Fold this protein.
Amino acid sequence: MQVRPKELKHFIHEIKEWVSLQKKLGKKRFYLPSRSSKIDSKPSSAGSVRGYSSAVKADQIAGDRSKNDSLAAFSDISFSELRDIALKCVKCPLSEGRTQVVFGSGNEKTQLVFVGEAPGFDEDRQGKPFVGRAGQLLTKMIEAMGFKREDVYIANIIKCRPPNNRTPRPEEIETCLPYLIEQLGKIKPKVVCALGNVAAQTLLGTDKTISKLRGLFHEIDGIKIMPTFHPAFLLRNPEYKREVWHDLQLIMKELGLKVETK
């Protein structure tokens, strides 16, 4: 592959910007995102994190325990400082089309975090996660568990809306994921509920579908991950609400909450 000087200069600039961000986040060890797909001018296939998510699991989430690089070892910057950095982020092309960065919202000391895929139209306009129709259903799910929205924390794998709500591309996830990893490291939740394929596959480093992942806890550095169907999927397929309620009840039991059985 022959890289033109202009492309190489831009690539080097991106690396320097990424290193600068990681230093601001207080990282002593970090991993550069792969940008080869951009230099090749070949768009990644939307809807798949195959070949990427396994690296995320090993290097960014589960960590290399022999080198003490795990979810338990995060920087000392505050949550508000992390938010300020994310709100100014221009690390990928999604920043060019966004209205607002959707950082996340809720209780930063909660035991339960919900992680979705990406902001949609309403989220992009309001700057808050899950405020559209799917968000209204998620609110009902949270309330059915005995919580209020402000009791939990809600975020997404990526912070900016993809064009036309398409599935985030692997390089977009790779660039944005450190923000979520920092959020989880600071909150230190007991349980993360991964909503949908992208959230579950990214956090667990797998290409298995949500149908095969849901209903069972998966553990990463002491944090229990419960994958389940995305609320947007439930709006189109309400017959799966029973399965989701089963998953939410497992979370409730894990958190020591009373679960009424009929």
Notes: The two ends are 63 Å apart (CA to CA). The chain has one domain: 47-254.
